[in-house]
Every structure is written in structure tokens, then in C-alpha cells.
Amino acid sequence: MTTTQTSASLRRPERPAATGARRPAGRRREGAAWVFLSPWVLGAVLLTLLPMAVSLYLSFTDYDLFNPPSWVGLRNYTQMFTEDPRYWRSVAATLTYVVIAVPLQLALALVVALALKNMKRGKGFYRSAFYAPSLLGASMSIALVWRALFNDGGTVDNLLGTGGWVNRPGWALLAVALLTVWQFGAPMVIFLAGLQQIPAELYEAAAVDGASRWRRFLSVTVPMLSPVIFFNLVLQTIQAFQVFTPAFAVSAGKGGPADSTLFYTLYLYDRGFVASHMGYASAMAWVLLLVIGAVTAVLFRTSRSWVFYAFEGDDR
To answer: What transmembrane ranges does the database entry give (predicted)?
Structure first.
């Protein structure tokens, strides 16, 4: 082999033409991706980020929807925390509602999901029937029907003889919470999907070891279902903090009786659109956002001690 042939064989092949051809194609694909993403980006900027920025600015102003906003600094926040007793009553009502409604809803959803899992016939029908309230329950019409059921002379009054719940301070909030519990269809479907993913071999091994049904539920179902339980807990907690329609319908927009159903979002609506204190309402909205973020962070932090992921054992 000659020197010329050796140097030619060792020379690195040149690929400028191929590289140059790939770059325009890559840029075209990137441009096409941004074209398809542009509706979402514009929607996020115009309908979410920009309104949030305006709301944050308004929270430091005195704004009544009719006159230009005037800067007041932290006055809305100090008034909220130190001078407004109804604000704290709305906080108490909302926290009570979250503590009552979310656990009851998830417990009922899990019980029904366990019953549907082992059902041989009619599973699709019952799954659809139980899911239907989740589609209808958030509407104003259903909330008004619920109010009629729990009003004086309503169905609950005629059956139990306890009087109308919506007119009693100790019972009105429970009536609203039961409406939320009735809408257990969405978490039920998620629980059912999670239950169907649990390997049957785990139940068979537990049965061979002599574990009862209750022990199998505690030692197999709950740990294997814990990621789904955590997902439903976070989702339903966030939604519970933002509940509005049931409280508005049951109390006719007043939060009564005696502010027992004055939920946070209902009082925010009252301050912003009834009293025209939009700056104060914006401050309330940002406090709610921070509280929901803090509660979600706490749930994620505590989940490390009780949520089990099957792949964690494979990584060790």
C-alpha cells in the first residue's frame, strides 16, 4: 500500500453536507412544534399568567371596579388578618368543611371501588351510575335541589323530623359537605383503576399465610394503593378549598345561617363582586393560593412516610 493510499484510508470522512442538511430539518421541526404549542402558550400567558400578575398588583391597591386603582401597600392584608372577623369565620368554615368532606368522600369512594372490583356482572352500569353525580353535582341546579331536600319541610325533614338543616347553624355546613361526599364518582374510578393493578399473587400469598380479609386489606391493599390514595387526597383537598357553588346555593349567597357556610371563596366573591372591594378580594385570592400551596407541600412531605411505590424496592 502506497503512502498516498494509507493517508487516504486514515483520513476522517467529511460530513459537512449531511450535517448542513440536518440542521434546517431540525429547525423546521422545532418551528412546527412551536406552531402547534402556540395556542397553549398564548392561552397560558393571556388567560393565566397575565391575570395573575394583574391580581397580584390589585392586591396592593384600593380598587372598586369603577375608579382607577390607588396604591395602598399592605393595607388589604393587615385589614384581612387584624380587622375582619368575618374573614376568620370564613377560614374556620372552610377548614371544617375540608376536614369533614374530604375523608368521608375518599372513604366512600374506596368502599364502592372495592365492591365494584369483585363484581362479575353489571360493573360498567354501576360504575357509570356512581360516576354520574361527579358530572352533575357541581351545577347550580343540583345544588338548588339539594337545598330543597334539606330545607324546612323537605325530604330530610319529613323522614328524620330534625327540621331543615340549611336553616340551622350546626347542620348547614354538614348538608353542604354531604353534597360533596355524594360526588365520589371521580375518586372512585381512580381507586378502581388502582385496585385492578394490584397483583392477585399478593392476595393469594397472604391467604396462604392465614391472613383474614381485614388483614389483607391493611397489609396488601392499602400499601399497594397508597400512591392512588395520595393522588386522590391531594386532588380532592385542593378542590375542597375552592368550593363555591354548593355554599352559594344553599345559603342564597349569604353564607348563613350565622356565617356557618361562609366559605372562603364565597366571602371572596362577596368582597369582590358584591361590595366592589376588588383589591381586598385579590389579596384574599393570593392568600388562598399560598395556603393551598403550603398544604400541598405538607402532603408531599408527609407522603414519604406512608406512600409506597413498588419500584422503590427494585432500586435498593
So the answer is: 32-60, 95-116, 128-150, 170-195, 216-235, 278-300
**pLDDT digits 0-9 by tens, 195-221:** 988 888 888 888 888 888 889 888 888
Given a cut of 70, the residues of the chain with pLDDT beneath it are 1-26, 137-138, 310-316
Q: What is the pLDDT of residue 25?
A: 67
pLDDT tens-place string over residues 19-72? 444 556 667 778 788 888 889 889 989 998 999 999 999 999 999 888 899 999
Question: Rounded distance, CA 50 to CA 248, Å?
Answer: 28
For residue 237, the SS3 value is helix
Domain coordinates of the chain in residue numbers?
Answer: 17-58, 84-315
Pure H helices in 1-139? 3-10, 16-44, 50-58, 75-82, 85-117, 123-136
Contacts 24+ apart (CB under 8 A), 283-287: 283/59, 283/60, 283/76, 283/77, 283/80, 284/80, 284/87, 285/55, 285/59, 286/55, 286/56, 286/59, 287/77, 287/80
CA distances from residue 182 to 134, 175, 178 in whole angstroms, order as listed: 8, 11, 6
CB 270 within 8 A of CB 248: no
Architecture of domain 84-315: Orthogonal Bundle (1.10)
Q: Kindly report the three-state secondary structure assignment for every residue of 176-230.
A: HHHHHHHCCHHHHHHHHHHHCCCCHHHHHHHHHCCCCHHHHHHHHHHHHHHHHHH
**How far apart (Å, rounded) are the C-alpha atoms in residues 214 and 316?**
30
Cα angle 192-209-112, degrees, rounded to a multiple of 5: 20
Q: Which residue has the cell 399465610?
A: 209
Closest by CA to 271, choosing from 34, 79, 97, is 79
Helix (H, G, I), strand (E, B) or coil at 66: coil
Cα 87 to Cα 85: distance, rounded to the nearest angstrom:
5
Establish how many alpha carbons lie within 13 A of residue 278's alpha carbon, considering only the half-sphere containing its beta carbon.
15
